[in-house]
Amino acid sequence: MPVRTLIEVSDISLDSLGSINIVLGRNGAGKSRLLRRIDAELESNPDYNLRYVSPERAGVFRKDGNTETNLERDPRWLRNVRRKNQAENFKAASAYFLRDVELAYLRRLQNTPELRNDPDRNFRTDRLEKINRLLSNISLDLEGASFVFKTLSGEQIPPDEISSGESEAVSLAAEILYFFETTDENKFNLLLLDEPDVHLHPDLQARLAQMILEEVSSLSVSRRENTAILLATHSTALVCALASAEMVSIGVKQFGVNTIRFARVSDQLRKVAPFFGHPLSLCLSGDAMLILEGEDDERVWQQAARSAGGRIRLFPVLAESVDHQGSLEQLCSSLLSAIYDEPIGYSVRDGDGILDGLPPVGSVRRYRLNCYAIENCLMSDECLEVLGSTWPMFCQRATDWIAENQNHKDIDMLSLIIHSSDRLRHTKIKAIRNLICPIATGSSKPWEVVVGQAIARLEPGRLPDSSTSLADYIGRDAISSIISPANEIERLGHQEST
User: Fold this and answer.
1) E strand segments, 305-412
2) Where are the domains of the chain?
3) Gap between the Cα atoms of 478 and 138, Å rounded
4) Strand-by-strand arrangement of the 156-157 sheet
5) pLDDT number for residue 160
6) 206: closest CA among 256, 304, 276, 152?
7) What pTM does this model have?
């Protein structure tokens, strides 16, 4: 963690900073304004070494005499230009800084005997290759005193003819390398990266994230303690590529609020990361997040989605306990609201004998099963129907089974369930859940598959009006909300174009 975990300037407060700090927020929430203000407020503070990278990076990555003249004549010229949303000649400045990276590296080479005496160490392998790892179809090379782009076959390409994504990647990489090459051990080094994902394919965003992680990891312990990155984005692909590292923290920028408290990336985010990983997949599938309490529930709902033929579109997220589920609900509500217009997610908990409902947590609608746990649903009419049975038929078969297995340890529980007025709906029946399918019809089908297939058959507009129906066991509100065809169409409009 950096020495400065708190930055306060004017009405801005950044609390619990880590090494890499992601600022999430929807368009217009003020992420860019926040970063520009931090740069402006701390520009003259002698305790800080700042570098601000603006979101719109215009121009071409090549040497430009006017840009170099402006950079050398006026130290404030670059800051004034980059605080605009449209930064002219941004990439020409990046090319200038890459030249500075080369000079700084050569000085280090000259002053460090162990580096100088290693035949495998040079500017090309230690610096240029970091840029080239971002590129798939071209490479950046050094010929004489100039940086040039080449195809994989060695043909030189003019800088203004490479793709916008490749140009963005090279420029960003040069800026990042320059920042890390010029960190000052006597100051707090702060890199302000404003929407580095612009124009980058999700795979390229992931490669850029890896480069950032590697640069931070390569710092000495003392230098890392005084270095931080503040990265504003609404790219779920970039967030989840960074979320693999423990050095990453996340905060949400809300409209009109300049206080952000960052939280270290935890197992909670890693669990939901696949859901947020690629916005395109969500736009195409319309999947909605469904937070579940245990592995049994996860298998049931996965089966339901598979058996529904596209009618049920859910992305199950597994919690490991009730407390963990509560943490995931809070986290997902915050992330969904920061990324999507009209966000919505779902959470279903075990009943555990509790009949009270659950209020929503922000954009996450919460439900409690109207039975003790998901295996109790096996006793519903629809699950018995999947097994080719009915309640009277099951009771008769269970009675016969008890008579034939007098020494079995679970006959008391089985006897209780067939004589119960409510099929032990609000009682823990985990001990006999694996007996129910074989007893009902001699089926070897896993009980989770039976419940999932029964859920897939439910039609929200035609739910049976019976207390022994599966809809009643799960909860009619939950069924109508989570698997309603109307809601599937609605979900497709919730994803914000990113």
Assistant:
1) 314-318, 345-349, 364-368
2) 29-227, 267-498
3) 52
4) 138-143, 146-151, 156-157
5) 86
6) 276
7) 0.64
